[in-house]
Amino acid sequence: MWRMRNDRLALLVLVALVGCRGGDGDGNRSGNAPAPRSGSVQTDTLTGLYEGGEGPRRNQMCMIQRENSTRFGLVVWAQQGETSCSGSGRATREGSRLRLAMEGDETCVIEAQLDGRRVTLPAGLPQGCAYYCGPNAQMAGAAFDKTGGTEADAMRAVDLVEDPLCG
């Protein structure tokens, strides 16, 4: 009788340990870790994480749509070095046009294109947008693909000091 109870207890402990191990480990993703790429990312709203570029630090943009407004944040890294462009503000969607208005000391309104899951900034930007960029960095022509469609995905985009862009 005692041995049967010990066997049951050992089995219960084993089941509990396996259950605590969790799922596929995606809950530990943070910062610039790439999001899963799948065809199932929602595109009904702007909310989500958008990523692009090459190299160890990917360009990121986040958007969080609430009620009557959408907030965004973005960071675009220079090809060489550790400089970037970054800013945040309000986004307005009109069909395939996405208007990104930076909130800061200089006026910068970017008329981007929205094509399915891709946001592309124009090759030429207003002069005030240079204020949001460090040396040798530029936002012109940057493209971002939507890699996550939730507010939690959007919160994975980080700024220069690893703080959430949409936080």
What can you tell me about this protein's structure?
The chain has two helices and eight strands, in the order αββββββββα. With 167 residues, the protein is an alpha+beta fold. The protein has one domain. An eight-stranded antiparallel β-barrel has the order 1-2-3-4-5-6-7-8. A hairpin with a 6-residue loop joins β1 and β2. It is globular, with a radius of gyration of 21 Å. The N terminus is likely disordered.
Strand and helix map with partners:
Layout: H1 2-20, E1 48-52, E2 59-66, E3 69-77, E4 84-94, E5 97-102, E6 109-115, E7 118-120, E8 143-148, H2 151-154
Antiparallel strand pairs: 1-2, 1-8, 2-3, 3-4, 4-5, 5-6, 6-7, 7-8
Short description:
The protein is an alpha+beta fold. It has helices at 2-20, 151-154, and strands spanning 48-52, 59-66, 69-77, 84-94, 97-102, 109-115, 118-120, 143-148. The chain has one domain (3-154).
Number of strands: 8
Estimated share of beta-strand residues: 25-35%
Helix run count: 2
Q: Could you give the distance between the termini? A: 58 Å
Structural class: alpha+beta
